[in-house]
Amino acid sequence: MEENRNQNNSDFMRETIKQRPLNKKKLIRRTLVTAAMAVVFGLVACFTFLLLEPVISNRLYPEEEPDTVVFVEEVEENEILPEDMIVDESQMQPEPTEAPALEDEQIAQVLSEMKLGTEDYLSLINDLNTVATQVQNSIVSVVGVTSDVGWLDNVYESEGVVSGVVVADNGRELLILANINSIRDADSLKVAFADDLEYEAFIKKKDNNTGYAIIAIPKSVMKDTTIHMAKVVSLGSSASINLVGIPVIALGRPVGMEDSMCYGNITSVGNSIRLSDSNYKFLTTDIYGSTNASGVVINLKGQVIGMIDMSYNAPDMQNMISAIGITELKRVVENLSNDKNIAYFGVYGADVTKEANEESNVPFGAYITEIDMDAPAMNAGIQSGDVIIRMGNAEIAGYQDMVRALLEYKPEDTVNVGLMRQGPEGYTEMEVSVELGLKSDQ
């Protein structure tokens, strides 16, 4: 009996504890949950890093803001401003007496003294070439690259080219002015410099009114030799009334070929290019070129006085090099260089002449001749025939005053506009509130 009890105890002590059988489905589920949580955690970590990395980098290595680009507005002594058109008759000087006419012998003597020999002519051409060469290093080719698919699904690229000019350096980027209307549908841009180096570029800001744009290249990707060579050009003045007859040089692509150069003279400056919210002086020359010409017109000081633009030539003058005056473009270029949108008002106009003021009692100001359909000005109730005399706090004595005042505003700004409107009993002063817009690309 005792032996049986001991035997049972011994058998009990030899029993082993068996592990519970594995639940494979549950193990797989836990593994998948863990893996999914790891993936989610990784995605959250990456997203957080992407968000915080620029902030942390800017805190540790703050990036310098680009310098503000400012162009000094030059007023020539011979420029006629609207306020100068109001003349006090008591201050008018008597007309000078005519100088005695030269005798034929005197004319012959003067002409003989003006004769140039071959060496003098070559010296003159060399001097012109020296001026042109200094500016040519700042002339670039802006290449618009467009990709397309052919009939056999083969991808090919086409290129359009216009000439531009280096107008500013904001410390971070080299800024180039060019009319990009002909390449506005390009997929990408690159800029070729006089040292045959090319760099990828982007449009910093475009003026949809004129088609001119500021194209930027980060200086960090450019070689020092290119930056040193492509200096910022000097912008001259197109405001003088004495430009007619002065010698000029056309650079860029005046004959449709890269790096072409032509000499000639200014033939007229009296016409204007009337666009909405702006008037630009139109310079014509006696230089025969391409209907697709682009580039700049410079004076003999090497200053840019106009941007070649053949869009406004008369039908019988299509091949004569013409340009938009640089003085009227300066403020637009300044805003574009500083990444500012140009506010859209939507009016066309002119100055009120002294004759109109005296004979028809039209008040001095910006006389509105036309308004774009659905423009901010039309939506505010401004009409053709109104005379704008005030924009915000700025007094308006002429149309160019209105253009300059408008450039101080941004799209979506609201500005109070004072105007004079003709009624049965003469002109009555009114004030309207205008919310400025942004002109769309044409």
Which terms would index this structure?
single chain; 442 residues; alpha+beta; six-stranded antiparallel barrel; 9 helices; 20 strands; flat
What series of H and E elements makes up the topology?
HHHHEEEEEEHEEEEEEEEHEHEHEEHEE
> What sort of overall outline do the alpha carbons produce when their principal axes are compared?
flat
Largest sheet: 6 strands, antiparallel, barrel
What's the number of extended β-strand segments?
20
Which blocks of ≥5 consecutive residues have pLDDT under 50? 75-99
**Strand order in the sheet with the most strands:** 1-2-3-6-5-4
Q: Which structural class fits the helix and strand makeup? A: alpha+beta
Fraction of helical residues = 25-40%
End-to-end Cα distance: 114 Å
How is the quaternary structure best described? single chain
| Rg on CA atoms, Å | 35 Å
Mean pLDDT: 83
| Residue fraction in strands | 25-35%
Helix segment tally: 9
Describe this structure in words.
- The chain is an alpha+beta fold and 442 residues long.
- Helices cover 26% and strands 32% of the residues.
- It contains 9 helices and 20 strands.
- The protein has helices at residues 2-13, 24-60, 104-113, 118-136, 224-229, 326-337, 354-360, 376-379, 399-406, and strands at residues 139-149, 155-169, 173-179, 188-192, 198-206, 212-218, 234-235, 247-253, 260-268, 272-275, 278-288, 294-298, 303-308, 320-325, 347-351, 366-371, 387-391, 394-395, 414-423, 426-435.
- The strands form 3 sheets. It has a 6-stranded antiparallel β-barrel with strand order 1-2-3-6-5-4. A 6-stranded antiparallel barrel has the order 8-9-11-14-13-12.
- A hairpin with a 3-residue loop joins strand 2 (155-169) and strand 3.
- The longest helix has 37 residues, at 24-60.
- It is flat and about 105 Å long.
- 30% of the residues are buried.
